[in-house]
Design goal:
single chain, alpha/beta, five-stranded antiparallel β-sheet, two-stranded parallel sheet, 9 strands, 39% helix, disordered C terminus
Length: 373
Amino acid sequence: MKIGSQKTNRGIAMIIVMVVVFVLGIMAAGFAYSMKVEMRLAQQASYESEFEWLGRSGVELARCVLVEQFKNRAAEPYDALNQKWAGGEGGTNVLPEIFFEDVELGNGRISITIEDAERKFNVNRSTPPTLVPEILNRTMIYVGVDASEASVISDSIQDWIDPDQDERVSGAESKYYLQQEPPYEAKNGPMADITEMLLIKGIQENPAIFWGSNSTNYVPGAFMTRGPGFRERPQPVYTVGLNDLFTTVSMGRVNGNTASAHVLQMILGDTNAVSLLLQRRQGQDGQDGTADDMPFRSVGEISSILNGIADPAFINQVFGVNSFVFEVNVTCEIGGLKRDYVALIHRINQRDINILYLYWKRPHKSSGDATGT
């Protein structure tokens, strides 16, 4: 009996030792992770000013390229995807030695992309008064919105922007939005950012219409999560979202040289017309942004291509061949940490080119992001 008691005590002692070792292991792992986070935060703090100046330097480089491109207006009186600012070869004598990828600067490096706002249709346009309703109706058809929802979304977008509280037949004003949780009022003015569409009746319930079905990085709407039988029903596929088609910051007309096939189809509603425009501007290789591109030099050239297909008056109202507002994305990297900056630039002429805003975009979802999280 005494021998059995000793064995039992030894077994209990062994279990206690294993538990202690296990707990100490967890504590050590937690401490190591905490130290890793602290080191990341310390690195971020030490690089803070360097990140900011790298971002600002990238924006200034973009401004420089946009100015130089404007100086070349006599030879190229248009803005197009084969030009330097858009990532093309740059045309004649426009900073051929400037590069946008992995530019070393100080202790870090930057990569830059520039996109014009005029490649999309400005949903805030108020003239002529029939234009936006016409474009919205075509958009609902092209995106694939169900007919029962199309008029709701179209009318609600217009109600959101117009200055009054009078609801269109299928639209919504503050009376509707004040009943939401949480309550809010209709904008009753131009949208400042295109994501305001996510607050609008019809889109609020189904954000996939805004983002497109291929995007999954968004919060599902109320109807998508709580609607009766929603998950059991087959859902429509939106090959393109409203976010890909509309902007709120362009100067109005859509640049026929930079607009995507989706935007052109939305505006023209004619596949043949879109094909004709793309064949002309893309050149023989059928690709945008290459050496053999043939950009439109004037709106008259667009009208000529679409002669007999689209109304010249409509073409003159909607299209242009120049861009004025540009979004600049600067990715900065220092010591394995990355940070993105976004700026909006308004180019009026070669002397007047203003930065409208500059902000730090959310961190990269990776172990090398600038927050360490």
